[in-house]
Amino acid sequence: MNSGANEGVYPLHRSKTIHLVRHAQGVHNVLGEDHSAYMPEELFDAYLTPFGWEQVDNLREHVHASGLFKNIDLVVVSPLLRTMQTAVGAFGGEASGDGVDMPPLMEENTGSSNRPEISSLNCPPFIAMELCRESMGVDHYNRRRSISEYKPMFPAIDFSLIETDRDVWWSPDIREKKEDVVARGEKFMKWLLRREEKVIVVVSHAVFLQRTLRAYGDDCHPTLKKEMSLP
């Protein structure tokens, strides 16, 4: 098939495998099509629903059964409650053994989860990265808490790359432009490619991932380009 697209061959040692994961169902995801319903401040930093936690459990079962879990070098997560709950629930460790003194990935019942503590034992490292947050502004469910609030909730997540304690990226009056989300996504992808890890999981958000992926694939066959852009 002559698609007109360029094809390339790259050495394996210069390649990465990046698994992109959208967070499980949050409380804001069950409000229907009326966008005004998504704006109340009560939705601030939305947490997972019980069904969302079922989705997390199913994903965890899949990554272990498929053998993916043992190959993961790093988990990168957007610093919002629903993404961190998804990340630690799906990719976190097993129950800590007796005498093992390690900080948990998530404390018991964090974010109204009714979940036990999640261990950081025998799992990849987790790092929070602001660049992979959801499209920002206006909607309170996309506003994060202060990092000083998150640290006791998620003690074993590395928040060192977050430059400010409070959320200075979110605005109550200005919604982030589509082109700015794309630019942020491209910056994030370049950051991933500069890292030394070869197999990376990214737990992020639907709009951010869709707009980021649409910026890629111009050198691929149109069918593949379209597939990359699907929600």
Question: Can you tell me about this structure?
Answer:
There is one protein chain. With 231 residues, the protein is of the alpha/beta class. It has helices at residues 50-65, 81-91, 147-153, 178-194, 206-213, 222-228, and strands at 17-22, 74-77, 126-128, 199-204. It has a 4-stranded parallel sheet. Helix 2 links the parallel strand 2 (74-77) and strand 3 (126-128). Helix 1 runs parallel beside helix 2 (81-91) and helix 4 (178-194) packs across helix 5. The radius of gyration is 18 Å and the shape is globular.
Features:
alpha/beta, 231 residues, single chain
Q: Structural class given helices, strands, pairing?
A: alpha/beta
| C-alpha-based Rg, rounded | 18 Å
Individual helix count: 6
Strand content: 5-15%
> N- to C-terminal separation?
27 Å
